[in-house]
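A further point concerns the way the authors explain their paired sequence and structure data. Showing the layout once, in full, would remove most of the difficulty. For illustration, here is how one protein appears when written out as sequence plus structure tokens:
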Amino acid sequence: MFFHTNGRERALIALLLFSLLLAPTAACNAASPAVQSDANSGALTASPRDRNIARCFTQGLELTHISRQRIDEAISARGFELYLKAIDPSKFYLTKQDVDEFAAAYARTMATSAKSGDVAPAFVIYNRYLQRVDERCAAAQKLLDENNFDFTVDETFLRDKDRVEYPGSDQEVADRVRKRVKFELLSFEAEERDKKRENEEKGVENKESVEAVPGRAEDPVSKLKRRYSTLQKRLHQSNNDDVLELYLTAIANAYDPHTTYMSPKSYENFMITIGLNLEGIGATLQWDDGYTIVKRIVKGSPAEKQGELQVEDKIVAVGQGTDGPMEDVVDMKLTDVVDKIRGKGGTTVRLDVVSQDGKRKQIAIVREKVDLEDSAAQSAIFEVYRKKDGELVVVDPRSETDEKPNPDEVAETLKVGVIDLPSFYLDMKAKNSSEGRSVSSDVRAILDDFNAKNVDACVVDLRYNGGGSLPEAVKLTGFFIETGTVVQTKPSNFGDRPYPLTDPDPAIVWTKPLVVMTSRLSASASEIFAGAIRDYGRGLIVGDETTHGKGSVQSMSELANNLFGRLLAQNAANLGAMKVTIQGYYLPSGVSPQLQGVKSDVVLPQFTSALEDIAESDLDYPLTFKAIDPASYPKFGYAAAKIVDPVRSKSKERVAESKEFQDELEKIKLYKESSLRKEPTLNREKYFAELDKLNANKEETDKLEEMVNGDSGVKRDYYLDETLRITTDYFDQINLQNAL
């Protein structure tokens, strides 16, 4: 994506380029302040490529970030804090002495040094971190070998990131390791207990097979020993790109939470996600205690067509072609395993897998282009019956068990179309819009289908949509309004004029009632769409009290293709990319969703409302934007108080009488009150008693993880049923007001 620059910025670029041409190469190799060296033959060190990347990235950061903030001591101090938090968030590995030593040497100069190409601090700190990891793992292994834990003592393990401090003495380190090991043993015991209970409920015999995977261990002590061993191996597989990505992103996050550096591998994965296509076998993989585990198989993918690979299979070896040698991938970094499995379409990859029953087999799969259909917009049409007594009955025509009410009891029947929208995707590598996949083209086809089938109302589900393409959000909004401003962008708070992004097409694809479902996980492009619909009075917003609160716009640029990249690294391979916040955005009303989000017209109890550290305001160093003048835009009037108030009132009555929603409210209350997550007890009896109280919350978090990371699609539950009832009331209120 190209950056627009004014005359002042072009002059600044020329000046900086001139200074770079004159800068001696020794500046890139300038020695950092003295820090006790932990270097050994296996230590990571900065390369010339790393130094070029740092110079390209930091110079671009200063020029293009919305704040116009120069890299200085304040940015360095923030970046230093964030780098330590990135590598050791629980303050378990590094000591107070380590941090004080690094702070004295780097806290005031970390970012300014990176600007001149000096990224040595990144590797010095990371190597010390690896040293401490080895020490903590060795201490944990020794405790596990002795296995002399007393679980009757009343003590706790502090996990609150806001209260925990770096250990300041050997005694504090030993105590922290001992308590963490006890806590993890209790966690493993709980997993085994819950697994056994689940199997008993399913009538599955509890068998363990340990022969199929070398080193597999199931008892808590052996399993934890293996976890520490694989942790060491995985972290020691870190390469320069891994460290540099953490380091430069920490500097970038000192500006705001969404400005980052992407290594070549991370950038490749990002482009696959945003474009919904890749070449490979079509399986989502996850790393767990050294094993690469299949978590999802994409519909229509080579893996699904081949048929043998199953969810929860462990991939233990990978071979290329029909006869290439099998390479053991147990304990290998997940990104490296993925690299071995992905490949050019038409080629074969062989996988040695271990299934849940412990059996080992080899599977050959021919790679091909995979369209990530599960991550695209999907739809379903429901029927809602209003009985003569006022009761609303939801029927899913896809269900074999749903029964329609007796026609004599029905006063009204509505067809409501639901669109599940997991992201605002766009194939950025496509040569033109007709070739690439986009959310607007997919939703347009769905809306055309709804119109053809005489659907009465539409629900767009954005509850788990974290955003995506800004132009796609504008296009999608245009399907529901006439011409007008959808969003206003502004490159800074310092007098720059806002730039309106408008829908130029007066045609409205969907003219009937619209309901938008949101949550605190709905962010960025989702908030642009929901906010515009709310400002225009075009539809009803249903969900958590407010959305995530991200009101900024980012631009993506490959370092090898930007101005500094071409100058400093003409012959270099892919140097990765920078994602930088270049604008704030404002709704047609002139208000930015930044920090405050988009409010719902009808609030429904939902577990996402209680989750901590997921909103923009919970992040480190979020931006703030002042309101601007509103744009000129028409009002539809479909969200007027006389329409919304009766809908909200009826929903409130149903929620109060709903067992499912009251159970949800109780879970939310328990979650908020619980101290287990902050400082769990290490007394076994009390631990399990507290855990049993929170089992319901575990079910909610498991469900949430499935919704966020699993297959998309319209999934029916009591929450969607209530939204469909709200939609029916909304439809009736609009018709009632139109008739007056």
